[in-house]
Amino acid sequence: MRAEDEALILACIPSLRRYARGLTGDPHRADDLVQDTLERAWSRYSRWQRRGELRAWMFGIMHNHFIDGVRANGRRADQAALGDLPDAPVRATQTDHLEVRDLDRCLQALPAEQREVLLLICVEDLSYQETAQVLDVPIGTVMSRLSRAREKLGALMQGRDSVSRLHRVK
Amino acid sequence: MNDKHLHPIPNTGSPITEADLHAYADGQLPPARHAEVDAFLAAHPQDQTRVSDWQAQRRALHALLDPVLDEPLPLRLPLKPPARAFPWRALAAGVAIAAISASAAWMTRGAMDARHLQTVLATASPERAAGGYAQRAAIAHAVYAPDMGRPVEVSADNEKGLVTWLTKRMGAPVRAPSLSKTGYELVGGRLLPGGSGPVAQFMYGAADGQRLTLYVTREAAGGQTAFQFTQEGPVRVFYWVEGQFGYALSGAVSRDELQRVSEEVYKQLQG
Question: B45 lies in which domain range?
Fold first, then answer.
C-alpha cells in the first residue's frame, strides 16, 4: 500500500469517530466500531478501487459493523418504539437542562436506521446519493428516513415525545 | 408520506416537493432550484419554520459531535496496515496438508501387510531417507522461521546451555556453527521430533530479517553424501550427511545464497 493511500485512510479517522459517537452515544462503543472499521479497511483496501469517496466507502464498512451489532443485540432501546419503553428516567432531576446532553439522548432515541441517515447527511455532509450507497438502500428510502428522523428529533427536543421515559441500554 | 414526492430530482420550474425542502436545508440543491425554494418559503411561513428547525438541528448536531474531531486518537486504533502475512504460513499449511495427505495415502493402503511395508522401508535408498529429513527440515523451517514472537526455545544468549542441552538430548556432540561471516547471527535453537528421534534446529537471522534454519538429525547417520538440493515451495534446502549427523540448511533465499552459507556450515562442522 502506498504511503499516500495510508494517509488517505488516516485522514478519515476523525470523521469516522465523530459518526460512530453519534451512532452509539458512547465513546467506548464508538471506538470499538472505529477499530473494527479500520481493521476491515486495511485488509480490504484493494477492493475500494477508487469508486467514489474513500470516506463514504469506510462509512459503508462501519454501517455493516454497526448493523451487525444492532442485530446481535436484538430488540434493544435504539430499535424499540418509544411507547414500548419501560419507565426508567435517565436523570435524577429534570432541572439540569443541558441542551447538548438532551440532544444526545434524543438522538439515541431515534431508530438506528434514522440516526444513520440523519448523521451522514447533517453531520458528515454526504449527498443523498452517497448516503444511499453507504447504507445500500434506494434514495427514496434515504429521503423518507431523513424526513421521519427530523420530525421525530424535533418532537423529542420539544418534549412532545417522552424523552424522560427513555431507557438507555449501555 | 409518499416516496414519489421525496425523490430528489430538482427540476427547475416544477412544483416544490418535500424533498426540495430537505435538500434546501442540507445545501444540496443547484443554485437555480435553491432560489425557487427561497421564493416558495417566503410565501409559506409554516414550511419556512420547518426548514429553519431542520437547519437548527444540523447546527446542534455539529455542536454535539464536532468536539470528537479534536480528541486525541485512542492508542488501540490500528493506524497502519497489518504486517504483510508471511507467505510461509500458507506454505507451512500446504506442506502439512501434503504430508498428511501422503500419510493418509499410506493409511488407505492398509491392505498392504506390515511385512511388505517393512520391505519397502528397508529397500528405500539412502537418498530417499535423506530426502525425507530434508522435507521435514523444510516444514520445520516454514513453521518456525516466520514466528516473530517465539522462533526458538532457547535463545542464543545462552548458547552454551543450548548446545549442552541439545547434545544431551541428541546423544552426540552438537555444535552451532558461527555464520557471522556470511551475515547471519544465531537466534537460538529448539528440539524437534524427527522421523525416528530428536532433531535439533538452529535458527539464524540476518539484519534484514531473513532467517535460515539448520536442521541436525541422526537419522541418516553413518554415510557421507555430497550437497543435495531440494525445494518445498519458496523454502530451498541444501542437505548433506557427514559422520553421525545429517544436516539440512533451509531458507526462503536464492539457491546461490543458500549454497554460500551451506559451504560455510559444512566447513565448520566437518570432522
Answer: 3-70
Any idea what the CATH number is for the domain that residue B203 is in?
A: 3.30.200.100
Asked if the Cβ–Cβ distance from B23 to A128 is below 8 Å, we say yes
Q: What is the per-residue pLDDT across B132-145, written as a single tens digit (0 to 9) for each?
A: 788 888 888 888 88
- Total domains in chain B come to 2
Hey, is A167 helix, strand or coil?
coil
Count how many residues are written for chain A: 170
Interface predicted TM-score of the whole assembly (ipTM), two decimals = 0.81
Place of cell 535408498: B125
Residue B34 is assigned to a structural domain of this protein: yes
Give me the domains of chain A, ranges plus CATH numbers: 3-165 (1.20.140.160)
pLDDT at site A117: 97
Nearest Cα residue to B182 out of B256, B244, B239? B256
Residues B48 and B147 reside in one and the same domain: no
Cα radius of gyration rounded to whole Å, chain A: 17
What digits encode the pLDDT tens for the residues B50-82? 999 999 999 999 999 999 988 888 888 888 777
Interface of A with B (CB under 8 A): 1, 6, 10, 13-15, 17-18, 21-22, 30-31, 34-35, 38-39, 42-43, 45, 99-100, 103-104, 107, 118-119, 121-123, 127-128, 139-141, 143-144, 146-148, 150, 153-154, 157
| B230 is a domain residue | yes
Which residues from chain A sit within 8 angstroms of residue B84, using beta carbons? none
Residue type, A79: Q
Does residue B119 sit within a domain?
yes
Q: What is the CA radius of gyration of chain B?
A: 35
B157-182: average pLDDT? 88
Same domain, B41 and B133: no
Provide the 8-state DSSP code for B209. Answer: S
> In angstroms, what separates the C-alpha of A85 from chain B's closest C-alpha?
24
CA distance A15 to A81: 29
